[in-house]
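Hi all, posting the design record for the shared folder.

TITLE: backbone redesign
STEP: 1 of 1
STRUCTURE INPUT:
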């Protein structure tokens, strides 16, 4: 018995998943941040703390346009932003994959011979152009006929 062959993409995806899990679990397992009061605060809070320690009289140049009333609302807005970004990326990659599959399908249809059937011609034909009957009277004469009355 031979084992099923694993594709290159499957190996890459498994490796990426393993790296993501390691990035999430290792800081917790190694106890990083145990010496801090709030071990896993965001980078903004860490930067603010460092700036106030180095220069206590520092005044920021800008203030936020909107300050959420609580940390929960701030977290919810951040999660909403992340979800919208993930949706846009998923849509983009889905469209890209669909186009690639459509192109591959079109190439496969062009490469494979199509059996000819009498009911469906291989080459689409345009309907025969019907000749437009010429008017027996010139345009000036037809205009004059209606005005004589």
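Okay, here is what came back for every position:
SEQUENCE:
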């Amino acid at each position: 018995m031979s084992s099923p062959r694993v594709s290159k993409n499957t190996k890459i995806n498994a490796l990426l998943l393993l790296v993501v899990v390691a990035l999430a679990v290792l800081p917790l397992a190694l106890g990083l941040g145990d010496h801090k009061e709030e071990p896993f605060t965001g980078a903004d809070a860490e930067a603010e703390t460092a700036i106030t320690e180095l220069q206590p009289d520092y005044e920021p140049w800008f203030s936020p346009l909107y300050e959420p009333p609580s940390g929960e609302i701030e977290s919810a807005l951040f999660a909403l932003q992340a979800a919208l970004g993930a949706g846009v990326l998923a849509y983009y990659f889905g469209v890209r994959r669909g186009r690639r599959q459509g192109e591959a399908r079109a190439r496969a249809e062009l490469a494979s011979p199509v059996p000819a059937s009498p009911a469906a011609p291989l080459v689409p034909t345009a309907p025969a152009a019907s000749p437009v009957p010429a008017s027996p009277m010139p345009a000036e004469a037809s205009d004059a006929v209606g005005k004589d009355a």
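COMMENT: The chain has a mean pLDDT of 80.
Let me know if anyone wants the other runs.
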